[in-house]
Design a protein that fits this description.
By secondary structure, the protein is mainly α. The protein is 81% helix and 0% strand. The protein has 2 domains: 5-193, Up-down Bundle (Growth Hormone, Chain: A); 201-375, Growth Hormone, Chain: A, CATH 1.20.1250.20. It has helices at residues 5-36, 40-56, 58-67, 73-86, 94-120, 127-156, 165-177, 179-193, 201-235, 240-268, 270-289, 294-308, 311-321, 326-355, 357-375. The longest helix is centred in the middle third of the chain and has 35 residues, at 201-235.
Length: 389
């Protein structure tokens, strides 16, 4: 069965617009801080509120998706995500700001499980390649979000956030008109899912191990985003703009890696590709740490491509392990692992406080090795599931 590129492109556009808001919010914090006279702690709580609602509750929406088809989330969720963020620049109190961020977060959380679940039915035989088309929309959304938000507030002031509603309305209309195309295979599969057997012990064990591997990968990714600026600005006393360019290079290369890596995963085998890219990330990150000038950007870019190339793949693997619970599998792999990885970065702060920022950075480099070792114990594909590469 061939990849349904049109359906995946439409879903990817919805993914891009939804995740614009996740990328935009951190960039807007300085403007909220000044407009409402906030402290750094209260400004940080804004991000915490967004994280709790946009990521941690995703498995709950995934569970709801598995119980009954909720395809109307697809056009509604990007609109809600954009609506919440668009109102943040108009409110006059901190409590209303938090409510707007929570609203946006629920829009983000409700889109991802349903989006990844729906994309599953249009990936054809090349599961990783098809899912990468959908997933890269989110990568691009997070990368483009800061630029769009900063452009709006630079021209129109903090109330310029209202412009964020435009992409939400546009993509919501597109998704609404294609609802029949997108929802039909999901509804058919939902009726068939009722006939499937309960989860086996091997399914549960393999799924939990895959969640652990993806969490460690997310911990590595979020850790690099947090500690590259700390290392170059606080430790080396370098130019903040230089650190910002490094982070952007890492993110954009990761989006490219998501697209380029997926066909290789389908060709070489999912488990082999996952373990190999995690293992290869370690020497590439060491090369980045010991490079200078252009080689710093090149090595970090290649490391980002390799590390993040398995992002869509792990969701495909989770869906293959749990075909009875596609929504839950998607919510756990996309929402929970990223949240858990972000929380894990707190432990890096303890390492940095005791042994310094360079040691925290080196600890991040070791994480892909641990995840790669865990792949040795992962049973995939499972015999009772549909065969996968």
């Amino acid at each position: 069965m061939k990849i349904h590129k049109k359906a995946l492109a439409i879903l990817s556009a919805g993914h891009l617009v939804t995740d614009l808001n996740q990328g935009a919010l951190p960039a807007l914090l300085p403007f909220f801080k000044e407009a409402l006279n906030l402290t750094y702690t209260t400004a940080g709580t804004i991000l915490l509120s967004a994280n709790l609602t946009s990521s941690i509750v995703q498995p709950l929406f995934g569970h709801l998706s598995d119980r009954r088809p909720i395809g109307w989330f697809l056009p509604l969720a990007p609109f809600i995500a954009c609506l919440g963020l668009s109102l943040t620049g108009l409110v006059s109190s901190y409590s209303l700001l938090i409510l707007c961020v929570i609203l946006s977060g629920f829009g983000v959380a409700s889109f991802h499980p349903e989006g990844f679940k729906t994309a599953h039915f249009f990936t054809g035989d090349k599961k990783a390649t098809g899912m990468a088309i959908f997933a890269v929309g989110g990568n691009l959304g997070i990368a483009l979000g800061p630029m769009l938000a900063l452009t709006l507030v630079s021209y129109f002031g903090v109330k310029g956030t209202l412009g964020m509603i435009v992409p939400g309305i546009a993509v919501g209309i597109v998704l609404f008109f294609y609802m029949s195309l997108l929802s039909t295979p999901v509804e058919l599969a939902h009726r068939e899912a009722k006939k499937k057997k309960p989860l086996s012990r091997h399914q549960k064990t393999s799924f939990l191990l895959l969640v652990a591997i993806a969490t460690i990968r997310a911990w590595t990714q979020v850790g690099l985003l947090a500690y590259i600026p700390f290392y170059y600005i606080d430790h080396l006393k370098g130019n903040p703009l230089y650190a910002g360019k490094l982070v952007s290079t890492f993110l954009m290369a990761g989006a490219l890696g998501t697209l380029l890596g997926a066909p290789l995963a389908d060709r070489w085998g999912h488990k082999k590709f996952l373990a190999g890219t995690l293992l290869l990330s370690f020497p590439l990150l060491l090369l980045f740490y010991n490079s200078s000038g252009f080689m710093t950007f090149l090595s970090l870019g290649v490391a980002g491509m390799v590390l993040i190339s398995s992002f869509a793949l792990t969701t495909v693997m989770a869906q293959s392990i749990l075909p009875q619970h596609l929504g839950m599998a998607s919510g756990m792999m996309v929402g929970f692992t990223i949240s858990a990885g972000g929380i894990g970065v707190t432990l890096l702060g303890t390492i940095a406080d005791i042994w310094g920022v360079p040691m925290a950075v080196k600890a991040i480099f070791a994480m892909p090795l641990i995840a790669s070792a865990l792949c040795l114990f992962l049973k995939y594909p499972l015999a009772q599931n549909a065969p996968s590469a």
